[in-house]
TrEMBL record:
Cofactor details (free text): Binds 1 Ca(2+) ion. Required for its activity.
Keyword set includes Hydrolase: yes
InterPro entries: A-amylase_bs_C (IPR012850), AmbAllergen (IPR018082), GH (IPR017853), GH13_cat_dom (IPR006047), Glyco_hydro_b (IPR013780), GWD-like_N_Ig (IPR056301), Pec_lyase (IPR002022), Pec_lyase_N (IPR007524)
Nucleotide-binding keyword on record: no
PANTHER family referenced in this protein's UniProt entry, alphabetically: PECTATE LYASE (PTHR31683:SF184), PECTATE LYASE 18-RELATED (PTHR31683)
Source species of the chain: Sesamum angolense
Residue ranges of domain Glycosyl hydrolase family 13 catalytic in the record: 465-794
Record keywords: Calcium, Carbohydrate metabolism, Glycoprotein, Glycosidase, Hydrolase, Lyase, Metal-binding, Signal
Catalytic reactions of this protein: Eliminative cleavage of (1->4)-alpha-D-galacturonan to give oligosaccharides with 4-deoxy-alpha-D-galact-4-enuronosyl groups at their non-reducing ends; Endohydrolysis of (1->4)-alpha-D-glucosidic linkages in polysaccharides containing three or more (1->4)-alpha-linked D-glucose units
Name of the protein in its database record: Pectate lyase
GO biological process: carbohydrate metabolic process
Amino acid sequence: MVLNKMSTVATDSLLLLHHHHHIHRASLRSIPKFQLISKKPPPFHLICSQASDSRFNNGASLCYRYPQLPRALSSTGAAVVETSESSGITFSETFELNRTEKDYAIETPFETKSALREGQAYYEVTIEFSKKTKIAAINFVLKDDESGHWYQHRGRDFKVPLVDHLHNDENFIGAKKGLGIWPGALGPLASILLKPEAAESKGEDIGELSLQNRPLQSFYEEHSVVKEIVACNTVSVSVRHCQEKAKNILYLETDLPGDVVVHWGVCRDESKSWEIPAEPYPPETIIFKNKALRTLLQQKNDRDGSWGSFVLDEGLFAFVFVLKLNENTWLNCKGNDFYIPFSSSVALDEHSGLSRSEVKEDHEEYGSPMISGSASESKEAVPAYTDKIINEIRNLVNDISSEKSRETKSKEAHEIILQEIEKLAAEAYSIFRSSLPTLPEANLSKEEVLQPPVKITSGTGSGFEILCQGFNWESHKSGKWYVELHEKTSKLSSLGFTVIWLPPPTDSVSPEGYMPRDLYNLNSRYGNIDQLKVLVKRLHEVGITVLGDVVLNHRCAQYRNQNGVWNIFGGRLNWDDRAIVADDPHFQGRGNKSSGDNFHAAPNIDHSQEFVRKDIREWLCWLREEIGYDGWRLDFVRGFWGGYVKDYMDSSMPYFAVGEYWDSLSYTYGEMDHNQDAHRQRIVDWINATNGTAGAFDVTTKGILHSALERCEYWRLSDAKGKPPGVVGWWPSRAVTFIENHDTGSTQGHWRFPSGKEMQGYAYILTHPGTPSVFYDHIFSEYQSEISALISVRKRNKIQCRSTVKIIKAERDVYAAMIDEKLAMKIGPGHYEPSNGQQNWSLAIEGRDYKPALRSPLSTRICRSGAAESYQESLQAYNPNPQDLTDEFNELVGKTLINENGTRRNLGEDDCKATNPIDRCWRCDRDWAKHRKRLADCVRGFGHHTTGGKKGRYYLVDDPSDDDMDHPKPGTLRHAILQTEPLWIIFKHSMVIKLKNELIMTSDKTIDGRGVLVHIAYGAGITIQFVHNIIIHNIWIHDIVPTSGGMIRDTLSHIGLRTQADGDAINIYTSSNIWIDHVSLSKGTDGLIDVIEGSTAITISNCKFNHHNDVMLLGAHESNSRDAIMQVTVAFNRFGKGLIQRMPRVRWGFAHVVNNDYSHWELYAIGGSAHPTIISQGNRFRASNYRYTKEVTKRDYATKDEWMKWQWRSEGDMFKNGAFFTESGKPLEHSKSPLVGMNLIRYRPGTFVGTLTRWAGALKCRKGKLC
């Protein structure tokens, strides 16, 4: 047996062995058999002293050596500069880095003594102390060297007190325990103000007690059975001057473990002030607050340390840096920055470091006081006024701790002084904050700004993850769940999920998988191992990260022991009863006691056993390599210590990991308490024990949402400090929020979310920080479209796990909050609208009792004075009898079809292939390139008056660049569209145009891409705002992304401020007479085509739409009645692969949807709200195989009695694979009958859709040939 021990130290004495703040040293008699356990430091060339003072956690020492240089040094974006080992070296030194790590304290073996009875022996160890010692207690644990078992007293250290009058503590053996003191400089103040409850002297302060007069009264410090040791590492720096390139090449190498970040800058003179040098920079470099640079060093091939090279211009005086290991560990040179001169004549000053007061780290979290960090702040030069504040605080502390004060001042007086100290501290902090420079945002492109890399940690993933649970409690019953889920992978990806949680994969006693048996047998009730591999591979192909559900707390045995107890395991991991905790009464384990709560249905695994941890580490790594799992969902983590989880995460290195820590919330007489801090504290403690390597499901938030929504008590959604009341309010980056899972819902229903309130719950978690998780049963239900819309809002607004929340209202019937100051949301039946201030807000989506996303969209941009004039033009373009136009259109289609059927067999191979009335107007002309402007005569439908640039000159675009937003280069598309005259814009050659910011059209323009291949892609889209008479023809628009905005010229005479563009491919805003024809559109961040704010007289024809969520929006929101004049024809288009919804979605206006081809929409095809008129004629609707999406139509925000009055009519449509159209409103009244003559649409129009839309999308036309 071995005794591991520590000491509990009196208030005015600290154990000599391992404590930092010495007041008096205890006299401890040495015992020869004591052995100090520590890591052997690696050998170094020089032994250097550690700095006694440091601005960061750890000191550093200075040593010198000449390392071997690499043969070549290079950096991304920089010229490769050849070096040699023998010449040009101007500087070469090695700095030794000393930092502290923890290890076990003193280990002492027992001595065997004579037996008390035959066959028995006992052991003892003697620890002798001086009678004058001031050590208050000894702590120890026991270890059996043969079995490796550890023994504690009721799960904690044994404690043997050496003084009397200690408070009750169940861990003490015949003694009592008291309070701890405040460490550090405020220790004396604390000893005066804090009195023990059981102090015998009422008028005497603890600080005046004499240990010589009586024993110590319940006042001591505890030190855990660990000690700190010094870990030694080095960083080597060498500099070589390259005359040929006029560069200094600095090479930095260190043997520090893990990721090492260099926080660096340069000095241009002897002032030693930090500056950022000119580019290029090494890989993985970001700019930090415009004050310094941060570079993540590259791992060596053997992963034993890291390195980096820096190529810098001549003329710089020095290179300065510090090293960052993690949030709490910075390394510097004896309290100063490392200072590397570029000239050999400059001597290194060991004691003159550089101030870095302006480059401190910001906190990323809300800052729960329950999670403490140890990072110290850097020293700052402070002005005289702050000196005055510091002196006042010192005087107050001296006053309160003086003997005279203690005799005269009451407790109330002490409290007043403490309040004054707090006020002064707050004032000092406000001065500090106001002194920080505020820099205006530079209007730079993405190429000009170094974007920080996305930080990937296993506790957060990228921070932008959206998790779906890929199963429910019944999923195992088919026996082929992996195959069934494989069919839904594309759907899940299109909905926006980035991570999926799969069911437990192992052989299990229970079919659901949560009673695992043979961990290496992956043939389960969900499918076999091969099917699992195929599923994981497919999920990776569609961009979804995969989590495996691993049960580490317990495992079912396969054999019984001699007593008939099931505690012998089989399979590859054939453990015996030593792997089972000793305090589980059902399975006779011989391991140590459990480090958590027992799960009584199966043997609980003892993770303190090294052989168990080794096997689990290897198993997790095997799962990652063999199956391809990217991370873990950890089951029942209440059952074992989070420190073991850290060990497993460090070994398996998951992309993302989340634990299930589920216990009961706090209730009083059956009613949930408002304050749930104790509950979320337990979850936070577990996360903290894992060192943040895993997140945890936010059970606290789920429980609070239950009461808030079910009882209409929305005030519960704010804690006492005005923050979210769950884990998401304390540690949002590690909180995985959810409302339902396979245990709480599904067929188990252990804690089902309030019925009918599910979407309010999702509105909350999908707009707030944390990582939201959506349950499988809700994904594939009637909630799917709303969940999809919320995910789209979250992604569009870049809400992530660390987003900020400002709660605006938390009252009885309403909760409202602002997220990241750009997204407002409200849930509950009560009223809330965000105040406009300098912004306008528009409703992104709306549901029953929730408006979770009110954002500032295009309407917040600076509007030009022509807005009112543009709306008047829209009113003039409005047709008061729209059905006359629809009948005329139908008749033209009928004539075209008759001509097609009657003459097609007489045409030669090279004859006209046009199949609809718009195409036959121009495509049958071989000289179309000479007669381009005849295209303007071909528009039909509501946009039939559009002429574009027909009355103007041709403009030839020969330059695809888009660099200058103020003075565009002649020959570019942006320069062309800014001209005030009508223009017909054509292109000299094929090109890809990456728009730096939105392309803002002016009136009377045609963009004609025929004859070449023109792609507008990978940048901003086209904005048609406050203009009229626009034609966009025969181009590709795809992969449109949001852009930053800024000062953008929108006419030759005006440049204005634009806010961030949303990522629409084409946005039509208060404009009229617009024709979009033969355009291929896909993959925009927001919508492909938006028609909003009173736009009208628009035709969208012959276009092809693919791979997008929100395809076409006609009408901005329910409150904008200006869209009542909107009239849009949607004709001859193909709505093809990967489309989800809005084809179109209509508010207020009139949409004629005619002869379009719809294939396999994933939510719905045609939708609307705010009583629009939708006439669907001659379309072909082909539904997907999913049973919930057969309906073509979807109506929002109205009861059935209301929407039955809306005129939505279907005439001549073809429905395939179960598709159906729900009609409403009065029947059509035709001024011209479509039932006679050449108009055959009513009877069999759907059969002609394939022909009519055959050439939809951009055409590859060649001059001199039919197009």
